[in-house]
């Protein structure tokens, strides 16, 4: 009964399929966690979403996908509250006959997943937690946002994507000296002075909790005792990364969708 966590797929479905073949996932027993941003930028968002929805049907709660900023953007475009952005590759999903079902499935994903496995608490989130390693307040905030996203208030929520808690869960990388999020998305070591990665700023005092996240390709793979970052920039030509949480075994698949990526 392994638990695998996989980084940002961004519609690189061929790479995902090859990676899953290599980790030898047992869908009847294992757990599979995805850090979000299943879609956009890459070539096969539609296939990726169909795969995810079908797999949840098989695995139930053992399959967890948290929402990333690109997933929210797809929902916003489907609901007509966001327009096309440069480098969007969402047309195929938006025009698919099953788009309503797929987007509806995505709208029912959480922002934060919290689960105790073998004596260790894990928090799965796309970008980060402002509250740090004590996620109780963040979980409450996440549940409120999730209720809105599923209901008639979704349009309003998606029009206000700069809401602090939404930004933390789906977009946060660096914080300035006043604790405000900054747009810088490069590697921490080349960052403008005064900026620090969120996970070096927020309180980090729960030894038996591990945060698992993605979103930050320039940060790359980080395996610290209580922090795992998994976005290795698959859609930008890097590998797609899976980590088995039980023993931290890492499996990486070289990107094989590159010729189809829309730059
Ligand atoms: Mn992201």
Fourth-level CATH superfamily: Metallo-dependent phosphatases
Beta content comes to: 15-25%
Largest sheet: 5 strands, mixed
Shape: globular
The beta-strand count equals 13
Structural class: alpha/beta
* Count of spatially separate domains: 1
Report how far apart the termini are. Answer: 39 Å
Q: Biggest sheet: strands side by side, in what order?
A: 3-2-1-12-13
Extract low-pLDDT stretches.
none
Just give the CATH class: Alpha Beta
CATH fold group: Purple Acid Phosphatase, chain A, domain 2
Order of helices and strands: EHEHEHHHEEHHHEEEHEEEEE
Helical percent range? 25-40%
Summarize this structure as a short list of keywords or feature phrases:
single chain; 263 residues; alpha/beta; Purple Acid Phosphatase, chain A, domain 2; five-stranded mixed sheet; 9 helices; 13 strands; 31% helix; binds manganese (II) ion
Q: What would you note in describing this structure?
A:
- With about 260 residues, this protein is an alpha/beta fold.
- The chain has helices at about 15-25, 45-60, 70-80, 90-95, 100-105, 135-150, 155-160, 165-170, 200, and strands at about 5, 30-35, 65, 110-115, 120-125, 175, 180, 195, 210-215, 220-225, 225-230, 240-245, 250-255.
- The mean pLDDT is about 95.
- Bound molecules: manganese (II) ion.
- Manganese (II) ion binds near residues 37, 68 and 126.
């Amino acid at each position: 009964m392994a638990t695998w966590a996989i980084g940002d797929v961004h519609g690189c479905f061929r790479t995902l399929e090859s990676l899953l073949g290599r980790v030898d996932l047992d869908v009847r027993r294992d757990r599979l966690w995805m850090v979000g941003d299943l879609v956009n930028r890459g070539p096969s968002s539609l296939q990726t979403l169909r795969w995810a929805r079908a797999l949840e049907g098989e695995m139930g709660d053992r399959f967890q996908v948290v929402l990333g900023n690109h997933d929210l953007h797809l929902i916003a475009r489907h609901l007509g509250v966001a327009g096309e952005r440069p480098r969007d590759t969402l047309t195929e999903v938006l025009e698919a006959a099953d788009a309503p079902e797929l987007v509806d499935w995505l709208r029912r994903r959480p922002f934060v997943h919290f689960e105790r496995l073998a004596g260790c608490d894990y928090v799965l989130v796309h970008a980060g937690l402002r509250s740090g390693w004590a996620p109780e307040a963040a979980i409450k905030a996440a549940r409120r946002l999730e209720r809105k996203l599923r209901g008639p208030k979704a349009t309003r929520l998606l029009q206000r994507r700069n809401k602090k808690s939404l930004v933390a869960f789906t977009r946060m990388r660096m914080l300035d000296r006043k604790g405000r999020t900054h747009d810088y998305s490069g590697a921490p070591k080349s960052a403008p002075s005064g900026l620090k990665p969120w996970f070096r700023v927020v309180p980090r005092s729960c030894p038996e909790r591990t945060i698992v996240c993605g979103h930050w390709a320039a940060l790359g793979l980080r395996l610290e005792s209580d922090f795992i970052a998994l976005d290795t920039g698959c859609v930008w030509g890097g590998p797609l990364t899976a980590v088995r949480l039980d023993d931290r075994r890492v499996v990486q698949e070289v990107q094989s969708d590159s010729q189809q990526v829309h730059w």
